[in-house]
Specification:
305 residues, alpha/beta, Indigoidine synthase fold, globular, binds pseudouridine-5'-monophosphate, binds manganese (II) ion
């Protein structure tokens, strides 16, 4: 039945059948998170890093109404350039398929599709969360609800302070989502290694992490995990500079009345402009670092008995 909707690339299908480690990758970061051509270059390099560290990469997107698990080089290039790609979260999926559109998957929809095909580890940059001012706007990313229900471990660099980090962590606690610090006690804030908030558990190696994840799902404690992996020190941004850029971007979004699914892409692109591309460089490096950890984690998880 799923074949009607999903096309799995041969290499990925084979790996899944043989219980080999696979890491999924989202595509909103490609089409709405970074400009061309850096987006395509980054996506390619991310796949390479996953491969070099023992797993098979599977970038997920929707092309002509079909869910693709694993993209060809041409498809990746197309996705990176195309202007007609809809940002697709949970609620968008059925309509993008029915209308035969192109869609870029968010953390939420990449988790859904990963789960459908049996991929348990997913690498991204940052997850969505509770936006600043959510007390009034109710703007809470569907990513958080997905983490509450869907059995996929998400490796990210924490959340940006375009969000309310404290409220995001509270929400994850309420929903029973473990927040792990990979070799850190402090939850990272994407561009910087520190946020002022602690993680629930610090884990220093992927084997130990794989054990805990296996235990969670063995006990039928459904839902995902946030594996927060801080940006490498040498690529970290100056926290004052980046926070000023974020403040200005948030203010402009408010003034322009940006709402709903447009908010996150708007803020990301504004921050890039304000920092004259410096934030993009950091963004790219932290994604590489997440791909590396995710690949090792998927490898260890596939060896867990
Ligand atoms: N945060 C980032 N970079 C991103 C995103 C979030 O630092 O590219 C993307 C991810 O795809 C995430 C989505 O799932 O934005 C969240 O969007 P929203 O806040 O509209 O749920
Ligand atoms: Mn939102």
């Amino acid at each position: 039945m799923l074949n009607k909707y999903i096309e799995i690339k041969e290499e990925v299908r084979k790996a899944l059948e043989e219980n080999k480690p696979v890491v999924s990758l989202e595509s909103t970061i490609i089409s709405h998170g970074m400009p061309y051509p850096q987006n395509v270059e980054t996506a390619r390099k991310v796949e390479e890093i996953v491969r070099e560290n023992g797993s098979i990469p599977a970038t997920i997107a929707i092309l002509d109404g079909k869910i693709k698990v694993g993209l060809t080089d041409e498809e990746l290039e197309y996705l990176g350039k195309a202007k007609n790609v809809v940002k697709a979260s949970r609620r968008d999926l059925p309509f993008i398929l029915a209308k035969k559109l192109n869609g870029a998957t968010t953390v939420a929809s990449t988790m859904i599709i990963s789960d459908l095909v049996g991929i348990r580890v997913f690498a991204t940059g940052g997850v969505g969360g509770v936006h600043r001012g959510a007390q009034q706007t109710f703007d809470i990313s569907a990513d958080l609800m997905e983490l509450a229900h869907t059995n996929v471990a998400v490796v990210c660099a924490g959340v940006k302070s375009i969000l309310d980090i404290g409220l995001t962590l509270e929400y994850l606690e309420t929903q029973g989502v473990p927040v792990i610090g990979f070799a850190t006690d402090e939850f990272p804030a994407f561009y910087t290694r520190k946020s002022g908030f602690n993680v629930d558990y610090r884990v220093d190696d992927t084997k130990e992490l794989a054990k805990a994840i296996k235990t969670k799902w063995d006990l039928n404690l459904d839902g995902g995990l946030v594996i927060s992996n801080p940006i490498p020190e040498e690529y970290e941004m100056d926290s004052e500079k980046i926070n000023t850029a974020i403040e200005n971007a948030v203010k402009e979004a408010e003034e322009k009345g940006i709402k709903g699914k447009e908010t996150t892409p708007f803020l990301l692109s504004k921050i890039k402009d304000i920092t004259q591309g410096k934030s993009l460089e950091s963004n790219i490096e932290l994604v590489y670092n997440n791909a590396l950890v995710a690949s090792k984690l998927a490898y260890d998880l596939s060896n867990e008995k």
